[in-house]
Structure formats: C-alpha cells, structure tokens
Amino acid sequence: PAELARGDPEVAGALGDELDRVRGRLQLIASENLASPAVLAALGSVLSNKYAEGYPGGRYHGGCEVADRVERLAVRRALELFGADHANVQPYSGAAANMAAYVALLRPGDTVLAMELSHGGHLTHGSKGNFSGRWFDVVSYGVRRDTETIDYDEVRELALRHRPDMIICGAAAYPRLIDFEVFRGIADEVGAWLLADVAHEIGLMAGGAVPSPVPHADVVTFTTHKSLRGPRGGGILCTREVAARVDRAVFPFVQGGPLMNVIAAKAVAFGEALRPEFRTYAAQVVANAKALTEALAEEELRPVTGGTDTHMALVDVRDLGATGVSAETACAQAGIVLNRNAIPYDPEPPRVNSGVRLGTSCVTTQGMGVPEMKEIASLVAQAVREPGAITSVAERVTRLTAGHPAYPRG
Ligand code: PLP
C-alpha cells in the first residue's frame, strides 16, 4: 500500500520483492497457501492494536466490545464449519495449539504415544528439541516398511504395553488418510485421551474432501494458514467435557493477549470456507495432488505409500540419482519452491533426506488443474534430472505461473 511505501520504503520494497517472488515461482510448499486479499486486509487492520486478554464477555481489558464481536463470530463460524462442541480460536500457531492441548489433558512426565518425526510426525509430537519430548515421556509409532502406511497393529501393541495418557494422531508429512475411528478404539482400550493434530488437512476437512476427526478425538488442533487458506495461526476444537481446560490452557497458561487482528482474519477465512466454492476448491486440491503424484511416478519419482489421499505428494528422489537436498536445490534454481523431506526409513541424515514434499494448495488457489499438474511433474523431474536444463525449465515455470498468476494484478 501507498502508506507503507511512504512510511518505510525499505520494508515496502522487501514486501514488493516477496510479492514478485510468489508471483514468479511455483509455490509447492505443502504447508503454505495464498490467503485472500480480504484475509490480508483483516490482518493489517486496527484490531492489531487491541489488548483483549481473556475470552468474550470475560476480558481483562476495557474497550473489548468489538473484539468480543469478532471473536464470537470466528468461534461461531468454526463451529458451523467443523461441528465440534467447542472452539478456541486464540492459539498463535499450530505449535501453540498443541502445547495447550498437552497442558489441558496431561501433567509433565505423563506418557504420550505419537508418530515418529522421521516417519512424518511433527516436532511437537515428542521431539527431544521440543517441549513435548523434554517434558513428556514419549513413545513413538511409525509406518510399515512394506506399505509405508501407519501400522495400526503396532500402535495398539505399543498402547497396550505403555498405557499412554494421550495418543496423538496426525502428521506433517503423511499423504494418506488417517483412520481416526481406529485410533479412538485404541485410545478407549487403554483409557487414553485422543488428540488429532490435523494442522495440514483441516482445509480439506472444512471443504468435505477428507473425513473429519471431530466425532472421534477429544481434542483437535489445527493451523489456519495451510490448506484452510487463512492467516498464519492455530485453533482448537474439543468436546464439552474438556472445553474449560482447553480455554485455561491457551490463556493464561500458554499465551497472553490474543492477536485480535489474526482472529478477525481467521473469521474471514472460516467465512470463505463456509461458501460452496471452498468445497470445489478442496476437492480440486485433492484431485490435483493425485494427478501430480501419478505424473511424478511416471517420471521415476516414487510416491511414498504409492499415492496420496490429501493435498500432499511425498516422493523418493533416489531413482533419479538425487538426494532430497540436491533435488530441492535444483528445483529452487528453476523457480520451483518445495522442500526436502525424510521418507520412512530414510538412509540419509535429516539435513540431506531422500525425498521431497510437494503440496497443491497454492497452485490450486491459482486456478491450476490436472493438465498443469502434469506439467509441474515434468518440470520437477527435468530440474532434478538435468542440471544443464535449468534455464529452459525456469522459462517454462515463468510461462506456467504467468498463465495462472498468484494475486493477479488489479
Ligand atoms: N502440527 C503439524 C502436524 C504441523 O505440520 C505443523 C506445521 O507444520 C504444526 C503442528 C505447527 O504449526 P505452526 O508452524 O503454525 O506452529
């Protein structure tokens, strides 16, 4: 905006460059999306100034009438979208939502059963470098070697042996549906809470493209900036039984004043997700991911688990003589933005990896469909396979993004 250019040309220049970067390259980071101008406008609104510790109707600051109205709107829309008993829209991020879920349900030292990081889990699911691994006794389950899908027999055996206080299902790099009902059964068998962390898939759930964990899990955590296409942030859905504990865990235990501008932007995003167009969008994201995965397989990029049910393709790059990091670097040179990722039982160390993860949330927002997915697979494969062809791949990337621009001018 003109005010920023006048007030701080240096930052304005950087933001302009970021817009050019987004427009000019292929955005395939599976955890990203392109929020609407309405969402971005709410983020940059006067509500950024407002302190509103507490919850609507029970704040610790004056002047919260509008903040209350906005937060109630966000909660009401989240409940309409997901059908849960209770929603908390204050978490600053997915990690903060997870921390609040641990606080609500557990005490330090309790046992948690969650997915192994190198098999697709998240840092907050028990990594030693994270609060979860430091303060809780975490037992990890993984995927089977043959199918690369969750080994539900192993989950049950580990649950019976370790008697966890909480089981976490949900992942950061797992392209298949998770059977929440089976997890519920295992949790009930051992008397554990069930936390579903659907940070990645929540938008697909909102759009009815994949099943929801809401009827099965005690607590569901999510992010608003990935497939849901909202502002950067988190959220929690839960049963009536644990609602008060979840609210107290978010504030005052984990967080201070809520980011009211972000909550306004979450309300906008929930409103957008309630529209019929979002159902079409979510279905197309999944159709595109399937088409992309199939086309990548034809290019000798082996899909982990053999395919995808979500917005994500996770592929093994070794048949092209690459590593995750070399593939990521080659793609970056051609203007294709994706990230290296561990594949199950990866022989390479974490900073190298044998796979890359690609998501279709952004390119679908840009209006791309199945034909473009085939082109993207060909671009990725050529960039990885032929270092000498980077310039011609980059030209094709420019043509593709120009035909389906992010944030079209005007
Ligand atoms: N949980 C899962 C499964 C995730 O994939 C992520 C982020 O990638 C998070 C939690 C954390 O979200 P945030 O980065 O907003 O803290």
UniProtKB/TrEMBL annotation:
Protein residues bound to (6S)-5,6,7,8-tetrahydrofolate: 117, 121-123
Subcellular location: Cytoplasm
Coiled coil segments of this chain: none
Catalytic activity: (6R)-5,10-methylene-5,6,7,8-tetrahydrofolate + glycine + H2O = (6S)-5,6,7,8-tetrahydrofolate + L-serine
Pfam families recorded: SHMT
Protein's pathway: Amino-acid biosynthesis; glycine biosynthesis; glycine from L-serine: step 1/1; One-carbon metabolism; tetrahydrofolate interconversion
Keywords: Amino-acid biosynthesis, Cytoplasm, One-carbon metabolism, Pyridoxal phosphate, Transferase
TM region(s), chain numbering: none
Superkingdom in the source lineage: Bacteria
CDD domains associated with the record: SHMT
Domain Serine hydroxymethyltransferase-like positions: 5-379
Record site: Plays an important role in substrate specificity: 225
InterPro entries: PyrdxlP-dep_Trfase (IPR015424), PyrdxlP-dep_Trfase_major (IPR015421), PyrdxlP-dep_Trfase_small (IPR015422), Ser_HO-MeTrfase (IPR001085), Ser_HO-MeTrfase-like (IPR049943), SHMT-like_dom (IPR039429)
Root EC class: transferase
Amino-acid biosynthesis found in the keyword field: yes
Cofactor: pyridoxal 5'-phosphate
Positions of modified residues (N6-(pyridoxal phosphate)lysine): 226
Keyword rRNA processing attached: no
EC numbers for this chain: 2.1.2.1
GO MF, one annotated term: glycine hydroxymethyltransferase activity
HAMAP family, per the entry: SHMT
Binding partners and assembly: Homodimer.
Physiological role: Catalyzes the reversible interconversion of serine and glycine with tetrahydrofolate (THF) serving as the one-carbon carrier. This reaction serves as the major source of one-carbon groups required for the biosynthesis of purines, thymidylate, methionine, and other important biomolecules. Also exhibits THF-independent aldolase activity toward beta-hydroxyamino acids, producing glycine and aldehydes, via a retro-aldol mechanism.
PANTHER family assigned to the protein according to its UniProt record, in alphabetical order: SERINE HYDROXYMETHYLTRANSFERASE (PTHR11680), SERINE HYDROXYMETHYLTRANSFERASE 1 (PTHR11680:SF35)
Family stated for the protein in its record: Belongs to the SHMT family.
This protein's name: Serine hydroxymethyltransferase
Source species of the chain: Sphaerisporangium aureirubrum
